[in-house]
Amino acid sequence: MPSHRFGGSWTERKLAALRAYLVQYQVIFHANESARKLRTIYVDAFAGTGERSNRNSDAEHLFGYSDETKQFQSGSARIALSLDQQFHRYVFIDSKASHIGALRTVVERDFPSLKEHCELVQEDANVWLQKWCATEDWRSSRAVVFLDPYGMSVEWKTIQAIANTKAIDLWVLFPFAIGANRMMPNDVLPEKGWGLVLTRVFGTTDWVKRIYSKRSEVDLFGERRDSVIKIAGADEILEFFIERLRTVFPHVVEKPLVLYNSNKSPMYALCFAAGNPKGGTTALKIAAHLARTR
Ligand SMILES: C[S@@+](CC[C@H](N)C(=O)[O-])C[C@H]1O[C@@H](n2cnc3c(N)ncnc32)[C@H](O)[C@@H]1O
After folding, report:
1. What is the CATH number for 163?
2. Is 48 in the pocket of ligand 1 (CB under 6 A)?
3. Is residue 214 part of a domain?
4. pLDDT tens track of the chain, all 294 residues?
5. Distances (CA, A) of 21 to 2, 83, 166, 288, 294
6. Is the CB of 95 within 6 Å of ligand 1?
7. CB distance 55 to ligand 1 below 6 Å
């Protein structure tokens, strides 16, 4: 795991890494003659409103979104729209109609020249992404996808669909410490509902044998009792997720950017994977550098 870094909130570090990556991405696409022929697309699939959030929903508290976020003005959508060098197309997805409405206002008011290049979609991110990955013409397009959910909302099927395109650079925020780890109790398997969520996120039931060990004991009355014990913590859960990414992407940042709350407890990891076997090499170098230095 990268060493614990202080200074700046986790939200700021996350968005700074995204911004730096998007700038570099555009530099590469503008500098390289064959890359210049490709259409570039930015997809922000948990887009929010474009601005910092003032709301205090339960999900925001549970997953660490509270007062810490309030000092930051620009959300990921605004950051992407503000780049000097632009993408050919921007897609912003959010399941909440009010967030899409607010984002539409931001685009129309502050980025009118980009309006024709923006698509705003009120839909479940997983549904939209899986459809889009299967239908876009990837011979002529390349994309950066940013997945910034509150919790354990990104399905493995979505990650798999993104990897299958071999044309997408993926940034995904994984709540390894405050999501996955908390869903896994110490001396019993997660209850059925949580178990299903974990399997949907990891795309396999292998997390059970990776995180839990079976125990068998004989009690005072000579009866055998089978139980389980948790043998792994948050770091191993993150390692497992990175291993899972490596099964479908040729390029994965091994040491993602770990984000801590103001009490210095780990919360999320901003993970990066690139699907293009050739172009992904440079992307990986840039992303690994950003993960080390943000
Ligand atoms: C952490 S916020 C995004 C913050 C944003 N990236 C920013 O920097 O401003 C997560 C957003 O995802 C939306 N959301 C939650 N579940 C979703 C889903 N299944 N599909 C699409 N959007 C979803 C929420 O409404 C919320 O706006």
Report:
1. 3.40.50
2. yes
3. no
4. 333 233 358 999 999 999 999 999 999 998 888 889 999 999 999 999 998 653 444 455 556 555 444 444 789 999 999 999 999 999 999 999 999 999 999 999 999 999 999 999 999 999 999 999 999 999 999 999 999 999 999 999 999 999 999 999 999 999 999 999 999 999 999 999 999 999 999 999 999 999 999 988 888 888 888 899 999 999 999 999 999 999 999 999 999 999 999 889 999 999 999 999 999 999 999 999 999 988
5. 19, 11, 18, 10, 11
6. yes
7. no
Q: Tell whether 224 is covered by a domain.
A: no
75: three-class secondary structure by DSSP? coil
pTM: 0.91
Range of the domain at 155: 10-175+248-293
Residue 228 CB neighbour total at 10 angstroms? 16
- For residue 74, is it within any domain? yes
How many domains does the chain contain in total? 1
**Is the CB–ligand 1 distance for residue 175 below 6 Å?**
no
Q: Is 198 in the pocket of ligand 1 (CB under 6 A)?
A: no
Minimum-distance ligand 1 atom for the alpha carbon of 125: 20
Instruction: Indicate whether 121 belongs to any domain.
Output: yes
Length of the chain in residues, anyone? 294
| Rounded distance from Cα 47 to ligand 1 centre (Å) | 5
Contact 256, 242 (CB under 8 A): yes
